[in-house]
């Protein structure tokens, strides 16, 4: 039996799905991905739903071609299809480029890896291997013993100090979807903002990360 | 001065326009590698000297200790610069690997001769492997990500053919794309030709 909370969130998700189309949802995921410094969770069900719709639209267009529907109508459908396709491609591309940028950082964190789709995980893995091989043969193999690690500066480093990471404390523009209320921006509670529905803010990404993940706030 | 050559490499990358690539500077690169090994030799000999004098390397703070520290830190500095030149992003805003990755999206799987010349052999190999990884991702997902690089405005565009392409079949029609001819085509059909530099969008 599911708990009340599950019911609540399921109801909320159903309401959100009813309120906006999948393409709208994809647009939001795309916008968030574009503005966020780190990689966000991949929404597999959403992407497969959008792909189904794209296929349907393509079939409809083919039917139109055969039955001789007005060209204007056809080109409107075509435009809609083109836009959706662009959104999907751009979204996937954006994620690959982010993976390229932070591949080593992502590969060594289970949490980050779990945000990727299976195909993206494979991509990240092979990218990291290739990059390591490339750095190995161009630079590291020529350096003296003790200084030849990809992730550490030298043997005396106690942690990985040469892995580029995204800057999570960068500022982002964001828009609240609903009233969040008094929200604490730092750990000690000195900075508190009242987040009102449909308002614009410029905040540190790190402090609103949780709200982005739970979908209470959109990055723009 | 220690570390100056290495910073020269980074200045070269940084002074370059975004998205462009300077030829791989193997002269300076090799000099920095030599410098690194020289630092290591000096470092080792200073440490050996201290061991021979029966000093505790962990706690002794004499001239030799600071000499060794300077060599160690200079080596680290050089290493960081070399890595930043090739890949790491924390020091330099642009780095070679990122530019090379972006070529796959902007130009395609085959690089023109002018760019090939600028690459280190390992970079060429990396580009090839990286392209293959993108290709296998696209075939797993069954989607071509190399088209649709800019948001579509109109499903059709007017293009001018820059090089003789010959007979091409697009959908149900087959058309002959001769140099300097103008065509009104579906945008998705033209993208691959545009990215290869065989066509350009014709704007009146």
TrEMBL record, chain A:
Recorded GO CC terms: GINS complex
GO BP term (any one): DNA-templated DNA replication
Residue stretches making up the GINS subunit domain: 72-137
Predominant place of localization: nucleus
Top-level taxon in the UniProt lineage: Eukaryota
Coiled-coil regions listed in the entry: none
Keywords: DNA replication, Nucleus
InterPro entries given in the database record: GINS_A (IPR021151), GINS_bundle-like_dom_sf (IPR036224), GINS_Sld5 (IPR008591), SLD5_C (IPR031633), Sld5_GINS_A (IPR038749)
Entry keyword Membrane: no
Compartment(s) of residence: Nucleus
DNA replication complex GINS protein SLD5 C-terminal domain sequence ranges: 166-220
PANTHER family: DNA REPLICATION COMPLEX GINS PROTEIN SLD5, SLD5 PROTEIN
Family: Belongs to the GINS4/SLD5 family.
Role played: The GINS complex plays an essential role in the initiation of DNA replication.
Name of the protein this chain belongs to: DNA replication complex GINS protein SLD5
Organism listed in the record: Oryza sativa subsp. japonica
UniProtKB/TrEMBL annotation, chain B:
Listed InterPro entries: GINS_A (IPR021151), GINS_bundle-like_dom_sf (IPR036224), GINS_Psf1 (IPR005339), PSF1_C (IPR056783)
GO biological process: DNA strand elongation involved in mitotic DNA replication
Record Pfam families: PSF1_C, Sld5
The keyword Phosphoprotein appears for this protein: no
Keywords: DNA replication, Nucleus
One GO CC term, this protein: GINS complex
Domain DNA replication complex GINS protein PSF1 C-terminal: from-to ranges: 153-203
UniProt subcellular location: Nucleus
Domain GINS subunit: 49-141
Similarity remark: Belongs to the GINS1/PSF1 family.
Name of the protein: GINS subunit domain-containing protein
């Amino acid at each position: 039996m599911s708990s009340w909370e599950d019911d609540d969130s399921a109801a909320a998700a159903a309401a959100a799905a009813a309120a906006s189309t999948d393409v709208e949802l994809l647009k939001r995921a795309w916008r968030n991905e574009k503005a966020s410094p780190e990689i966000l969770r991949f929404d597999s069900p959403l992407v497969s739903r959008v792909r189904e719709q794209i296929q349907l639209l393509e079939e409809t267009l083919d039917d139109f071609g055969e039955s001789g529907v007005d060209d204007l109508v056809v080109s409107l459908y075509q435009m809609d299809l083109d836009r959706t396709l662009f959104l999907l491609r751009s979204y996937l591309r954006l994620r690959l480029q982010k993976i390229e940028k932070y591949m080593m950082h992502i590969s060594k964190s289970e949490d980050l890896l779990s945000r990727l789709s299976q195909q993206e995980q494979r991509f990240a893995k092979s990218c990291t291997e290739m990059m390591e091989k490339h750095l190995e043969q161009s630079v590291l193999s020529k350096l003296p013993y003790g200084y030849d690690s990809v992730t550490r500066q030298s043997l005396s480093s106690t942690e990985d100090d040469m892995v580029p990471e995204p800057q999570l404390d960068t500022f982002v523009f964001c828009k609240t979807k609903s009233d969040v209320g008094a929200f604490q921006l730092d750990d000690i509670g000195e900075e508190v903002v009242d987040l009102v529905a449909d308002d614009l803010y410029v905040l540190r990404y790190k402090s609103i990360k949780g709200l982005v993940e739970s979908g209470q706030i959109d990055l723009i | 001065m220690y570390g100056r050559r290495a910073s020269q490499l980074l200045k070269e990358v940084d002074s370059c326009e975004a998205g462009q690539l300077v030829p791989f500077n193997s002269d300076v690169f090799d000099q920095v590698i030599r410098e690194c090994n020289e630092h290591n030799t000096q470092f080792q000999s200073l440490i050996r000297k201290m061991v021979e004098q029966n000093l505790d390397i962990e706690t002794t703070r004499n001239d030799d200790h600071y000499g060794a520290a300077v060599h160690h830190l200079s080596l680290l500095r050089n290493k960081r610069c070399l890595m930043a030149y090739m890949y790491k992003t924390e020091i330099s805003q642009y780095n070679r690997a990122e530019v090379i990755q972006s070529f796959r999206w902007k130009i395609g799987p085959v690089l023109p001769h002018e760019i090939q010349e600028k690459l280190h052999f390992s970079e060429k190999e990396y580009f090839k492997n990286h392209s293959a990884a993108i290709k296998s991702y696209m075939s797993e997902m069954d989607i071509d990500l190399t088209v649709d690089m800019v948001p579509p405005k109109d499903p059709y565009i007017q293009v001018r053919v820059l090089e003789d392409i010959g007979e091409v079949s697009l959908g149900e029609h087959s058309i002959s794309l001769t140099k300097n001819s103008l065509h009104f085509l579906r945008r998705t059909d033209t993208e691959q030709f545009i990215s290869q530099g065989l066509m350009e969008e014709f704007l009146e």
